[in-house]
Amino acid sequence: MKLFNKISTYTQEVYNELVNKVSWPTRSQLVSSSVIVMVASIILSLVIFAVDQVIDLAMHGIYSI
């Protein structure tokens, strides 16, 4: 029974913190952050793709000798 009380208290505290103490971002902040992450991901993937292509071209050049 003691364990159940501890779990119950913990659950209530977690719920209270999520509802009353956490500051959630507004919808516009969330959309803005998501766009920034997507753009950064696309840029990083393009950089990695370019480096991969350069290395592939170099390896083909080396192996064709």
Present the secondary structure layout:
Blueprint lengths: L1 H20 L5 H37 L2
Could you explain how this protein is built, in words?
The radius of gyration is 25 Å and the shape is elongated. The chain starts with a helix and ends with a helix. With 65 residues, the chain is mainly α. Helix content is 88%, strand content 0%. The relative contact order is 0.05. It has helices spanning 2-21, 27-63. The mean pLDDT is 95.
Major β-sheet profile = none
Question: What is the helix/strand order?
Answer: HH
Anisotropy-based shape: elongated
pLDDT average, as an integer? 95
Features:
mainly alpha, 65 residues, 2 helices
Short recap of the structure:
The chain is mainly α. It has 2 helices and no strands.
